Amino acid sequence: MKAKTPSESLTILTDYVLPGETNPLDSLFGGELLARMDRACGIAAQRHAENIVVTASVNHVAFNKSVPVGSVLVIEAKVSRAFGSSMEIYADVWRECMEEKKRVKVNEGIYTFVAVDKEGNPIRVPALQPETELEKQRYDAALRRKQLSLVLSGRMKPEEATELKKLFYDN
Amino acid sequence: MKAKTPSESLTILTDYVLPGETNPLDSLFGGELLARMDRACGIAAQRHAENIVVTASVNHVAFNKSVPVGSVLVIEAKVSRAFGSSMEIYADVWRECMEEKKRVKVNEGIYTFVAVDKEGNPIRVPALQPETELEKQRYDAALRRKQLSLVLSGRMKPEEATELKKLFYDN
Amino acid sequence: MKAKTPSESLTILTDYVLPGETNPLDSLFGGELLARMDRACGIAAQRHAENIVVTASVNHVAFNKSVPVGSVLVIEAKVSRAFGSSMEIYADVWRECMEEKKRVKVNEGIYTFVAVDKEGNPIRVPALQPETELEKQRYDAALRRKQLSLVLSGRMKPEEATELKKLFYDN
Amino acid sequence: MKAKTPSESLTILTDYVLPGETNPLDSLFGGELLARMDRACGIAAQRHAENIVVTASVNHVAFNKSVPVGSVLVIEAKVSRAFGSSMEIYADVWRECMEEKKRVKVNEGIYTFVAVDKEGNPIRVPALQPETELEKQRYDAALRRKQLSLVLSGRMKPEEATELKKLFYDN
Amino acid sequence: MKAKTPSESLTILTDYVLPGETNPLDSLFGGELLARMDRACGIAAQRHAENIVVTASVNHVAFNKSVPVGSVLVIEAKVSRAFGSSMEIYADVWRECMEEKKRVKVNEGIYTFVAVDKEGNPIRVPALQPETELEKQRYDAALRRKQLSLVLSGRMKPEEATELKKLFYDN
Amino acid sequence: MKAKTPSESLTILTDYVLPGETNPLDSLFGGELLARMDRACGIAAQRHAENIVVTASVNHVAFNKSVPVGSVLVIEAKVSRAFGSSMEIYADVWRECMEEKKRVKVNEGIYTFVAVDKEGNPIRVPALQPETELEKQRYDAALRRKQLSLVLSGRMKPEEATELKKLFYDN
């Protein structure tokens, strides 16, 4: 299977924040943002895998800035690394400010999807070939995140988490 | 401020999985589940804080089992630890199987909320006093998760993450 | 078939009142509340019957207090009596007031569901064994309500509605 | 205030039954139908009152026939009687069968609305002047239903419920 | 196949404008109105064709007046002409003003639907027999609109668009 | 005001077709597509105008191919011409076919938006400077469409529609 670049899976979901999607502070509900990011990341994963994909996990979504009702919200999702049948997807989220004539980064999130066949069995996906500097950083960090996830769930022994240990021993 | 127990914030959200909330495999969409968990966790945080709360981050949501359309889905959310103005909330998710006459754990997730006043400024919340064995385990693990989050975002040096380091040095 | 207690079917649906579910007075729409109660009552009926259930009728839902947008709404539904293949479900509805640190009863409603097989034919459900004082009162009243419903729809002669007649003759 | 006829408040809500509104038998969810009827009845009440109205209670909604997904559903709502600031609204529900080239009555329901000012205080509405035979029957029955509701909620003594008592004594 | 009148397909969709359907000016979103008109026109087409129908095109929808949240919106749709398997549907849209005690025309739109069998193949529909003066005007104009649509899409040569040319040559 | 290029307003809305948005043939409802196109076109108009915009009209939306449930749908909207305070927006719609590994054009539509201030009064927008061959074609055609719209609504005499007349006289 030929490796693919992150830009081949780039998915852009631009949409309004409607009044029915807000919390009592008149800002976008966290849960609605999680759902939109899941759809954008799922489409990016499907473009990379060219198969059905299902959400496997969500990691490290940080809500840094609130998004007022009426905003235009832009989600850009790209595959950041592939591992066998699973893919890590990175989503960057901006809101556009009409008044300030610029866009502001409000959030980012990392999702993991698995490619499956019609019976739900995992199937292999192409490897990822990062191109830009940021894509390479995220590609490297994805391995640490994967080891961390395996250690925290008890499926990997800490001493085997080579990439993760460097973080602590090297300091 | 008097400490509170996890059971004081217990929030139960029982609802159907409707046809409009499913993926191409006729199972609950990951994004819809994330949104429901966010609402249940937000209400648990609000009950603990007795103030407005907003989603700060989502960590470690794992989708272990798919949830077919028509299922009854039960989310139980409780505060697992409080840190100043932020709260970690643990959500356990089950689906009920009419045929098998039992309920099956399908998912769990950890969300962080922050209590704010009407201008959106953080305000302190009560400490958490865990009671059951599981609540105590989750309370202890919450500190490691918090350090991990601070290290990964560059707001804490790895050598200061005392709880986290034990995980690696002790092995 | 072994009788069941009301608490075996207790179903709790806790959720926010979102801006998309309000009337021109910024309170929860009656229709949205009816839909939520229907889902909670349906799940309670399904837990009692361990079979598919469909709504048969709605009786005596009284909207006593309005529920402002942003409220946390709690619906608690339990089977109050079973008659062959049909079940009467009682739903109590509260809203939580963050400011007043208490919960307020806003509504109650009574729904009837019928258990059916996959072709939609009625099938028998377990009898109900009430336990608390309130459960016993509701169990007794359910018979009067059933007779009333039969009389009003012309399927029972008033003189045969023994329980109902007492209401009038005894006074 | 000049009396009005039922036809002045006639409200027709024709719409599809969409896949997102169905139960596990692929028929319209009871709760969704209740919500649609509430909106149609609310508009009929508002047309009669020419003021804001809020749902006060729901009585005697019977689900006689299931409504398959894809059906065209027609709700016709008219005021059946007015009492001071409250109005009883009668809704008849049909589904249209493309194949059988006819429409079938599937349901009917009775709602009560109250007219209020912008602070939510009740305000008087015009009296109702029924015209057709069916409108007159429903107008008469509305008084029995009102007495019944008052008796059941303890706000009227059974011996004062003159219309209701006839139902039992005369037989 | 016997011709039908426009009134045989008259479809009325009366519903509220809810807060979840509004733009930043607190008026009904254009897209939501387009969707409601599509459903009303689709039902009118289905009543005329007595078969499944799908949207073929939308022409000349003009948003003349904004519709504030909380309004009652009335859509009346009728077939304006039939051509083989396609039907032109005319939708008139009003909002009701409680304060001004009248209804105001806010919008009108023209949709084209095609009748299809279960495999999606076009099937013939009855001809239309207009009755009122307005129905006759719309029936005549429909032919000009059809020619215009064919010319603009390159499927008819301008010199063959006899009805359309009159518009320019006669002036 | 400096002119802008179409690519400065390019808006991409990529999202799934969910089961709750389908017609009886299990394809995307026309009305849902119209609503999504309205949101994408509205954001493109807002990016061009840097002000609030409202839908003024919809012209010539043709539904050429059905879009099955589960598809990924991509809408790309760009301003095609500006006239004072109004903007014509062109939306191209594709669906992605996982199996056929390509994307297919399914639809296109033309919307008109008007830029307004917070009181709803029209305000001027920048002129458009087309760049590509297709953008230039659409820019020219936009004037004919505008004249056509004015003629059909009686706001321009046919003999003054210079661009439009060429279409007929030159043939």
List the helices and strands and how they pair.
6 copies of one chain form a homohexamer.
Chain A: E1 11-16, H1 30-49, E2 52-63, E3 72-83, E4 86-97, E5 102-116, H2 133-152, H3 162-169
Q: How many beta strands in the DSSP annotation of chain A?
A: 5
**What is the CATH domain class of chain A?**
Alpha Beta
Main interface by residue count: C-D, 47 and 47 residues
- The sequence of SSEs of chain A as H and E is EHEEEEHH
Low-confidence stretches of chain A: none
Verbal overview:
6 copies of one chain form a homohexamer. Chain A has 171 residues and is of the alpha+beta class. Chain A has a single domain, classed as Thiol Ester Dehydrase, Chain A (Roll), CATH 3.10.129.10. Chain A is built from 3 helices and 5 strands. Chain A has a 5-stranded antiparallel beta sheet. The first copy, chain A, is globular and about 50 Å long. The first copy, chain A, starts with 10 loop residues before the first strand and ends with a helix. At the C-D interface, helix 1, strand 2, strand 5, helix 2 and helix 3 of C face helix 1, strand 2, strand 5, helix 2 and helix 3 of D.
Summarize the structure in short.
Six copies of one chain form a homohexamer. With about 170 residues, chain A is an alpha+beta fold. The first copy, chain A, is built from three helices and five strands; from the N terminus they run E-H-E-E-E-E-H-H.
